Request: fold
Amino acid sequence: MTQYGFFFDQQRCLGCATCTVACKEWNEGRRGDAAFSTLTDTQLGAMATPTDWVAGTASGTTNHAFNRRFHMKETWRKVSFHEFGDVAPNVSVVPLSMACNHCSDPACMKVCPVKAITKEEVYGAVVVDSSRCVGCGACRAACPWEVPQYYDALEKTPMGSEKHPRMTKCDMCVDRLKVGLKPACVTSCPGRALDCGPMDELKKRHPIATVTAVGVIEADVAKTRPNVLFRARTVVVK
Reply:
């Protein structure tokens, strides 16, 4: 196995969250509640307003903004913002784009009671078989990176019920890697702040990269040995 990972250039990141949107678009069909939609694409396209949807009347037009209410609720790649300083203009806002770090010592995998989380054998991606997941939430509690995702609150439905959420997460776009493509988040970034590849190659391409950045807790790095490198932004607040 060749361990793949991510590189994030915090100095180039625009904070635009295009990576988040691209991830959602590419992985739409893998959302946790995908099987629960009883409306076809044609039916959804015919619903022009929430009123039309409730009444079941077709308008013959497509309301994309409304249709997106049925789209992926999980967010596998998140962009967070870290603020420094108190009074403008002496403030600094630093973005951080993070997905699953496909750790060498995954905390989520160790606590899963049904062994639904495994290390993929070719790229070293940490993947989940959602069909085996029982939705206990142990992986989410164990992961310091807040990676495991559920489309709804676990306490709303009992474990074992059809509509009880199963965990989903970033899988490094293994399906794209297999055909020679980079993950969707990487290829979509307008600032070219993201990269993905074998960790040895990433270290060669980015020799000054570090294992921490603004917003990354060093203790968490030691805990799970994440496969992600950073070019960190320096915070200067006068």
Summary: DSSP finds ten helices and seven strands in the chain. Confidence is low (pLDDT under 50) at residues 52-56.
